[in-house]
Amino acid sequence: MRSHELRTGHVEQDHTPEAIRARLARGPDRSTLRDFVYGAVDGIVTTFAVVAGVAGAGLATRVVLILGIANLAADGFSMAVSNFLGARSEDERRRRYRREEEQHIATVPAGEREEVRQLLSEWGLDDGQLDTVTDAVTADRDRWVRFMMRLEHGFSSSGPSPGRAALATFVAFVTVGGIPLGPFLVDAVLDTGSALFAWSAALAALAFFGVGTGKALVVSGNWWRSGLETVLIGGAAAALAYVVGAGLGGLA
C-alpha cells in the first residue's frame, strides 16, 4: 500500500504544470538502450560461439583466446561502424523528408493542408473541429512541417546521436561480450586447466540473463521472461557453433 502511494505521488509530481513544462523543454529521451542491448547480446553470442566452436573441435586454450580477442576487437568495431552509418543514414533520410515537406508546403499549400485535414480526421474530429485544428497546425510553417514529419512519415523530432549509438554498441560488445573468455584468461595466468568450457558456458548464460533482465527493468517489462528469452536465443546460437565445431574438429 505504501509503495503504491509513493508511485502515485511520484506520478502526480511529474504532471504538475511546472514539471511538464520542464520535461517537454528537455525534448525526447535519446536512449541508447537498443544499441547497448544489441551490442551486448551479439557480443556474447559471437564470442561464446568462438568458445563453443573451438571446444567442439577440441583445440587448445590459446586458440580460444586468440580467436576470441580478435573477434571482440574486429566484430565490435565493425558493429559500431555499421550502427554509426545506419543511424547517420536515418538522420539524413529524416532531413531529406523535411526538405521535401518544406518544398511541398511552399509549392502546393492547399494540397498539403488537405493532407493535414485527412490525417486529423482519423482522430474522430467533426468538421468544425477539423477546420479549427487544421487552421492552427497550418498557421505556423515550422509546426506544419513537424506535424507532417511525425504523422505522415512517422519520424520523431530527432533521432539518437550516431556517435553515441556506435559507442554504446562497441562498449557493450567488448565488455559484456568478453565475459565468456574470462575462464580462459584466468587459465592463461594461473594454469587452472579445469572445466574451462563449463565455466565459460555458465558465465555466458548469466551474462545473457543479466542483459535480458536489465533491458526488462529499464522498459518495465517482465524481468525473468526477458532474461530467459535472451538465454535461450544465445544458447541456441552457441549450441549451433558447438555442433559445427565438433563436426569440423577432424579437419583441425
How would you describe this structure to a colleague?
The protein has one domain. Helix content is about 80%, strand content about 0%. The protein is built from eleven helices and no strands. α3 packs antiparallel against α4 (about 60-105) and α3 runs parallel beside α11 (about 225-250). The longest helix has about 45 residues, at about 60-105. It is elongated. It starts with a helix and ends with a helix. Residues about 1-5 have low confidence and may be disordered.
Question: How are the SSEs placed, and which strands pair?
Answer:
Blueprint: H1 2-14, H2 17-26, H3 33-57, H4 61-107, H5 109-121, H6 127-138, H7 141-151, H8 162-177, H9 182-190, H10 196-218, H11 223-248
Helix pairs in contact: 3-4, 3-8, 3-10, 3-11, 4-5, 4-7, 4-8, 4-9, 5-6, 9-10, 10-11
Short description:
The protein has 252 residues and is mainly α.
Contiguous helical run count: 11
Structural class: mainly alpha
* Beta fraction: under 5%
Largest sheet geometry: none
If you compute it from the alpha carbons, what radius of gyration comes out, rounded to the nearest whole angstrom? 26 Å
Write down the secondary-structure element order: HHHHHHHHHHH
Straight-line distance between termini: 63 Å
Low-confidence stretches: 1-7
Shape: elongated
The overall strand count is 0
Number of domains: 1
Helix content, binned percent: over 70%
Provide key terms for this protein:
252 residues; 81% helix; mainly alpha; single chain
